[in-house]
Amino acid sequence: MSLAGLKKQLNKANQSIREKIGGAEATKLDDDFLEMEKKIDTMDELSIELITKTKEYLQPNPASRARLAAQNQFSKIRGQARTTQYPQPEGTLGDVMIKYGRELSEGSVSSEYDWRNYGEALGEMGETLKQMAEVKYNLDATVKQNYLDPLQQLHEKDIKEVLHHRKKLQGRRLDYDCKKRQKEKAGSKISDDDLRNAMEKFEESKELAENGMYNLLESDVEQISQLQTLANSMLEYHQQSTELMEQLCSKLQSRVDDASSRPRSHHRPKKVTEDLLDHYNGTDSTDAPPAYASISAKERTTWYVETDETESGDLLVDTAAADSPTTQHQQPCCKALYDFEPENEGELGFQEGDLITLTNRIDENWFEGTVKGQSGFFPVNYVEVVVPLL
User: Which PROSITE patterns does this chain map to (predicted)?
Assistant: First the structure.
């Protein structure tokens, strides 16, 4: 900086101090200009807040945003073009549902315990959530291109240029007021030409700053159009998400209806002594005939004891319990898969595991049989035939 330039800067600083502390009067600008200055200051703050909060709306997790920014910056330093996507919470939740839904579905091999319906429902919801995550990625890209980028340009170029003109105006105003104050002193070295040049530069800067602020404030059509673009993008995102969720809810309702209409079985925990009983009866517990498996818990309770009259380990078995499988296998019979409560006269009620003697087949949907001294009709899909009718 030249000596003249340094002297000029010192005069401006001196004038500013005199105005703030000494009460020196500054050249006042018109009210319209001051009002536009306030509006531009508001727009400057607004643009910063909008950029920040819109990014937070698209990517709510601050830790994930920071980690993503660090990863992308590291990739850029290493010369890699790969960019890491923000982990959408819908996609993360969907991955969990798909993973464990698959495990539940693949593990449901027992006829008694079937979790496939729930596992498949988890998988369907997980896939829907992953589709919603893709829709959110599309929203992210659209908003960035059509709203954030123009807003960033507004802040970094248009508003910045106006603020530059205002800063230059402030410097020239201080220079003009300083020379005007010195001119009024007796014996001043400030000529009329110097004062006139300072005034002309001041007026030139004011005109540039005022025109820039006016043009920026008059661009409301463009600003509102960008807001409309943002609103349309958000609307499209919510419409697509709503459509996906409506389809999912319909599928889940069908699964609820299907599960509700399916006959329910009552789980009865197996006794620890069952395998021991099967061993002493000379049968494998996994291949026990249905007739034996259907005997009530009271009839099946047997013990082996050590006494003076029996050898160690001899099994005392109830005669009726031991003979019932052989006796019932000699005639057509079936095993109850579920409990059946009769709702109409003539129907036969039974419990899961009961062994029912078959006497007749009414049609493709109904059997006739007897159990526990009672006779009646019962549905075919509630039982498993052990010895078929001849």
Answer: BAR, SH3
